[in-house]
Amino acid sequence: MTVEVTPELFESVPDAHGRFGQFGGKFVAETLMSALADLEALYGSLKSDPAFLSEFDRDLAYYVGRPSPLYEAARLSDEIGGARIFLKREDLNHTGAHKVNNTIGQALLAKYMGKQRVIAETGAGQHGVASATVAARLGLQCHVFMGEEDIRRQSLNVYRMKLLGAEVVPVTSGSRTLKDAMNEAMRDWVTNVDNTFYIIGTVAGPHPYPMLVRDFQSVIGREARAQSLSQAGKLPDALVACVGGGSNAIGLFHPFLQDLGVEMFGVEAGGKGLGTGQHAAPLSAGSPGVLHGNRTYLMQDDDGQILETHSVSAGLDYPGVGPEHAWLKDIGRVKYVSADDEEALAAFHRLTRIEGIMPALETAHALAYAEKLAAEMSPEQHIIVNLSGRGDKDILTVAALEGIEV
Amino acid sequence: MSRLAGLFSKLKEQRRRALISYVVAGDPSPSGTVDLLHRLVAAGADVLEVGVPFSDPMAEGLVIQLGHERALANGMTLRGVLDIVTEFRRDDTETPIVMMGYANPIERFGYEAFAEAGALAGVDGLITVDLPPEEVDRLDEALLQVAIDNIFLISPTTPEQRIKSIVSRARGFIYCVAVKGVTGSGQLDVAEVAERIGVIRSMTELPIAVGFGIKDAESAKRVADVADAVVVGSALIDEMVRKSEAQVDAEEIQIHGAAVQLLERIRAGVDSSHF
Fold it and tell me: Count of domains in chain B?
């Protein structure tokens, strides 16, 4: 695709149909179309409404604890050499990841719509926890759909959700991971559309979700941009973030898209290696198709069936990706790369040991690539890595992989 | 005149309602579907809906989801479904066939290529659950070229203005979804369905089929009192699953028989309707 990349281009998406170039859209059953239209209309009126925005900002400040710091990982930089590495500390948010930025926003929308019940899908459990948290705070009923396989590997987060009063619904269909949880959440939404708000956890799904989740998460990049200017005296040379559905990445990237000198890298889960087919890297090794309400890059076979994915990290174990990422890939604004399970685990240990910061396994994929990237850059340059979540939830997974019983 | 239009005009003359059966191609076995389709016609199906299995059937309840999973495990593909239609047409050139599935396998096949292959095989209509009017233009255009009817869905949540715009481009028949929910779920509220059918009828001459939530002769009769066609799917598949679970050594002909017998009872229910 030949599109001239100008700063204005990024203000043109999504269009009125919710499309980012050929990607995005509203590929859902007719029953959901009016719910999406209602949401689109409400959000359209609220996104520039000062009362709504100040309520959102207030919650981010006093409930989530924003702004999150931009921390220079000087010891890590010394160890790696090359560019300075800054970490955008989303792990310090309430509930331990970037996910809460979005659930705060969507819960406010649910409140404005008068919905008494929220549902969510979750993979690693971070979005489920963030949804259960805002539901508890607003007194809303909350059902979280989670694949059986993910329930097994993220048992701590499952218990957290239960403590918060949410019901965790095990999903036993298909591959029993995030994609199947999303199918089941969609089925619930179709059935209970009158009283239920569906809090989608990433920048995927039908329009207007990719847009509104992006808008809620963009606080990450807005803060990082200002912090970079004040702490490093200039814009960063590169941004790095992991990409499953892509919400933390779009949150960091979006406010920098018009700064054409800032390079961006989205890091997908390479699993056991792109050559093995056992990965979760649709942008690196997939092709365009339609799933979960939008057209995007997918991992699929020749017959258009969605393939099972593999990643050590439950939060990246998803065969699709947000449509804006698909578009950013095609126009060449963002480079999409991958880090495999082993590289991510090594990065998990390195940051823990050198900086005393234990990253989520999802985040560790971004760190693994950032280390390679920094090593090839000069000390005058600096990069920002989105430290999207903390790793406490992954301790049992890491221990099991290393044959240690906790 | 297309097979669908011919059928509905014939039934109108005879003052009869249409019965539409749904099964998933390749379920329960990959080789038996053609035989099952012929038996469903013999048992009273006027239109055959043939499900195209997909790995992520978001609008399906558990019964049909598992049907999709079994069909995929049996190796069924979109090409395979077209082959089934081709084979069926060798012995039956009259019964309309409507394929029902999801966008991605068709996207992968290519819209134009699919339309051509579908027409060649003898497909009459297509329902793509996740292609609402906003997303269906390109496929609709390809189908129009080969005289396959794109069948639009109207749900309990579709506002009147939107119904008007949907029926203005509809062909074949209107598929009215009876309940908010997935296939096979929910409590059927016939009075509510009747009201919606009244609204749709005031806007179009096309026949109106009602599906989702019709389980037996009784519910089929009540729907046939108000709709031109009754769609039954989950209940047929459920019958086959029950049969194979109750009798582990059941042969395919017996498993199919369970669905066929239910369809016969539903046919009787439809034919006892008053309108």
Answer: 1
Name the residue range of residue A40's domain.
20-58+99-213
With both helix axes pointing from N to C terminus, report the angle between A209-217 and A323-330 in degrees, rounded to the nearest 10: 80
At B124-141, the pLDDT tens digits run: 999 999 999 999 999 999
List chain B residues with CB under 8 Å of A35: 157
The answer to whether residues A105 and A235 belong to one domain is: no
**A91 and A121 assigned to the same domain:** no
A179 is catalytic: no
In this complex, the residue of A26, A180, A288 whose CB is nearest that of residue B135 is A26
Per-residue pLDDT tens for B193-242?
Answer: 999 999 999 999 999 999 998 999 999 999 999 999 999 999 999 999 99
B73/chain A closest Cα distance in angstroms: 11
Q: Are residues A129 and A39 in the same domain?
A: yes
For A152-298, where are the E strands, in sequence order?
Answer: 167-171, 196-198, 238-242, 263-271, 287-291, 293-298
| A121 is an active site residue | yes
| Tokens describing residue A163 | 């403590």
- Residue pair A199/A189 in contact (Cβ under 8 Å)? The answer is no
- Residue ending a domain, among A213, A229, A264, is A213
- Answer yes or no: is A227 within a domain: yes
Indicate the residue of B78, B108, B162 with minimum beta-carbon distance to A289.
B108
User: For chains A and B, what is the number of CB pairs under 8 angstroms?
Assistant: 117
Domain harbouring A385, CATH code:
3.40.50.1100
CATH code of the domain covering residue B8? 3.20.20.70
Residues A28 and A206: their CA atoms lie apart, in Å, by 7
Contact A30 B153 (CB under 8 A): yes
Q: Which of A228, A311, A338, A388 is catalytic?
A: A388
ipTM: 0.96
CA A282 to chain B, closest CA, distance in angstroms equals 15
Catalytic site residue A148? no
C-alpha A293/C-alpha A202 separation (Å) is: 13
